[in-house]
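Lab manual, section 2.4: Encoding a predicted structure.

Procedure: take the sequence of the chain (162 residues), apply the prediction step described in section 2.3, and record the output as structure tokens. A sample record is shown.
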Amino acid sequence: MTIPQGPLAAAPPRESGRSRTARRIGCLALLSAPPLLLAAMVIAPVWINDHRLARMVDRIQESSLPPGTGFGSFAPQVEVSGDSGDCWYTIRFELSTDRPVPEVLNHYRQARIEDPDGDLGDYEVAGWTPSDEPGTPGDGTSTGVIVDLHGTYDASTDMRCW
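Recorded output:
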């Protein structure tokens, strides 16, 4: 049997040392890098401001309470909103107290707790009692008071403020 003599079949091209899977992963990483960097640039200010607000909540919890008062049944809650770059926050927490509500509110107005911008006492204080709470403050029974601290902070890069 004779073997045909002709041009030899071309050898398969030699790989450049990387597998096809490695090249695909590299391309995928290259294509996904810009959206990931953009997402990090957008979300980083939110994380920073959340941290600043969490530090303010810590300062509220560490400050002295009015006499005859303790923290209520739920953890402090923080809400952030805004419009056209102005950022507003509300920190809401519950207290159980035997004091009148105006006395509790005056305590927090005079507490001069540092806000997210580093200013002392630069917030408004409002409070209310749930309508189904038994007893009235001052008659020896303990009642729940919801305290809201409202303020603004400088965070024009926070997407929640637009």
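Check your result against the sample. Residues 26 and 32 are 10 Å apart (CA to CA).
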